[in-house]
Amino acid sequence: MPELPEVEITASLIGAATTGAGIESALAPGINALRTFDPPLTSIQGRHITGVGRRGKLFEVGLEGDLTLLIHLMSAGRLQLFDKRASLRDRTSRLLIRLDDGRELRLREFGTRQAAWVKLLTPEGLASEETIAKLGPEAYPDPPPLGPLLDAPRPLHGLLRDQRVLAGIGRSWVDEILHAAKLSPFKRGSELSADEAAGLREAIVRRLGEAIEYYEQHLALPIPDKLPMPLAVHRRNGEPCPRCGDRLEAVFYEEYVMCYCPTCQTDGKLLKDRRLSRLLK
Question: Confidence class of residue 113 from pLDDT cuts 50, 70 and 90?
Answer without folding.
Answer: confident
